[in-house]
């Protein structure tokens, strides 16, 4: 986890998948409305977050970024931002 719990929307992964793209993916593909400021919130603070959302996220994220998501590390993540950093930023 990074020391900074917020990330500017302009952060871009090598493949061009931005944090804004990620928020849209969570909202559109998972069906979970997400405000940009909620990306860094602990999963316990997200209403309705459950393991099914995580499965849907990994399934939608892999084709969006064009590579496999490190599921073992993702399971240890405590926020959507941590998942973004692990899967997209490496």
How would you portray this structure in words?
The longest helix has 15 residues, at 51-65. The chain starts with 18 loop residues before the first helix and ends with a helix. With 90 residues, it is mostly helical. It has four helices and no strands.
Set down the secondary structure blueprint.
Elements: H1 19-30, H2 51-65, H3 71-74, H4 80-89
Helix pairs in contact: 1-2
Question: How many strand units?
Answer: 0
Q: Could you tell me the mean pLDDT?
A: 85
Along the chain, the helix and strand elements come as HHHH
**Distance linking N and C termini:** 12 Å
Q: Please tally the helical runs, counting DSSP H or I stretches of 4 or more residues.
A: 4
Query: Residue share in helices?
Result: 40-55%
Give me the Rg, rounded. 12 Å
Shape: globular
Low-pLDDT parts are 1-12
In terms of quaternary structure, the protein is: single chain
Q: Characterize the main sheet.
A: none
How much of the polypeptide forms β-strand, as a percent range? under 5%
Sheet/helix structural class: mainly alpha
